[in-house]
Amino acid sequence: MAGRIEATIAELGITLPRPMSPLANYVPYVVTGRLVVVSGQVPAIDGEIAITGKVSWGVSLDQAKQAARLCFINVLAHLKAACNGDLDRVQRVIRLGGFIAAPSEFTQHALVMNGASDLAVAVFGEAGRHARTTIGVPSLPADAAVEVEGLFEIF
């Protein structure tokens, strides 16, 4: 039976995907004590990266925000696995990190990352408010437009 958080996710019209396998030699998450670190996730749908390229060079601001949202959905899928299938164990979204593939003159990284941050708050309420770092980079694995990682407190 789905818990409170999964009910909220369903109300938002989101179905969590099957967690995507890592693209290289790392694990998708690490649980240590009451912390879960979820490795960077790309904007994938059904295991395929859905939004590729550079923000402002072929990827619009709205597409980039959608990419960040998709990344966070994939973060949630791994977080659920880390919580043995029970997202109600999440007490707090501590930090999100965002990497935005964009040319050096692009300066709206924070607006892109709001795609992930807004969804974190929509899913977890006040416990979804988090610290954040958003960084512009020249490229990301498999030409993903955005990558998002997360740090969570669980019980």
- What is the CATH architecture annotation? 2-Layer Sandwich
Name the structural class. Answer: alpha/beta
Let me know the number of strands.
9
In what range is the share of β-strand residues?
A: 25-35%
In the CATH hierarchy, the third-tier topology is known as: 60s Ribosomal Protein L30, Chain: A
* Poorly predicted runs: none
Largest sheet: 5 strands, mixed
Q: Average pLDDT, to the nearest integer?
A: 96
Tell me the series of helices and strands, N- to C-terminal.
HEEEEEEHEHEE
- Total number of helices: 3
* Assigned CATH class: Alpha Beta
Largest beta sheet: strand ordering: 1-2-9-7-8
**Which range best describes the helical content: under 10%, 10-25%, 25-40%, 40-55%, 55-70% or over 70%?**
25-40%
Report the end-to-end length measured between terminal Cα atoms.
19 Å
CATH homologous superfamily heading: RutC-like
Give the total of domains: 1
Radius of gyration: 15 Å
Summary of the model, kept short:
This protein has 155 residues and is an alpha/beta fold.
Please, could you describe this protein's structure?
The protein has 155 residues and is α/β, with parallel strands linked by helices. The protein is built from 3 helices and 9 strands. Strand 3 (44-45) and strand 4 form a beta hairpin. Helix 2 (61-82) packs across helix 3. The longest helix has 22 residues, at 61-82. It starts with a helix and ends with a strand.
What brief labels describe this structure?
155 residues; alpha/beta; two-stranded antiparallel sheet; five-stranded mixed sheet; 60s Ribosomal Protein L30, Chain: A; 3 helices; 9 strands
